[in-house]
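Dear U.,

For the methods section draft, I wanted the exact inputs and outputs in one place so we can describe them consistently. I've listed the two proteins in the order they'll appear in the manuscript figures. Please don't edit the token lines directly; just add comments below if something needs changing.

First protein:
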Amino acid sequence: MKKVKVKLHFPRKWISKPLMSEVISRYGIVFNILHADISYDSEGTLIAEITGEDEAVTDSLTYIDSVGVKYKLYNKSIILREDECIHCGACTAVCPSEALTMDKDNKLHFDKEKCLVCELCIKACPLRIISTEF
């Protein structure tokens, strides 16, 4: 099984078409939407996690690209040096997926599965203890 995070950019003509339903049924993949910014009759972006057999994931991305929906794979991951964290919560204020959250005891928690790798947390961290890994 293969799992990839991907950002899709939909041109205006594809916003109202059921492309993702077609891809899911054609290639038998699991398509988990992590974040979406899509409006009718406008361009839009979608960040998702695609899971399936290696060949099915590759073929689905090839098909998506062939119809004019561009994509970008997230090959990076966020690294948080937790031992240096002061739990200020600055990163949680900018995290769109709530991968970074504060618990009731004001301790920072990082859920890598929810992370979109948008890198906003890197800029928000006053101690600069958040980075990316390729």
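Second protein (the one for the lower panel):
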Amino acid sequence: MGQTHIVSGLVTKRAEIDGQIISRLAEIKDLKQVLHHLDRTIKVFSPEFDLRTIRATRTNTRNALFAHGEAQRFVLGVMREHGKAMTSRQMTDAIIKCKGFEIETNTVALIQKNILNVLRRLERKGVVMLSDSNDGILHWCIA
């Protein structure tokens, strides 16, 4: 019973997530109501319109850490400055240092995820490539 602080933290986190779920469900309910009203309005102006033909559009959320194209510029700049093959973690550390980000676990993970996406996109374009390494860790270099 000496781990009550762990249980207390888990209970707090569970309550927080449960609150987020309730909030999102309420938001979904409101959006469904708005959608219903839009459907009815479309039918007023065009009764024969088939609402099933309307496809949902994907919503993209902007990355708050980097401006448009900034992550790619940082990746290429860091790679040019370093001059040899680097891991994505080394690039992440260098970019965190350049941008002056607060070092938090979730921020580091998000930055590294963005960098990996940039690297994969640049690899498809032939700008960067994976280099062979004996240690089994992926190293990236400019093609």
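Candidate sentences for the figure legend, describing the second protein: Residues 70-142 form a domain with the Arc Repressor Mutant, subunit A fold (CATH 1.10.10.10). The chain has a mean pLDDT of 89.

Thanks,
Y.
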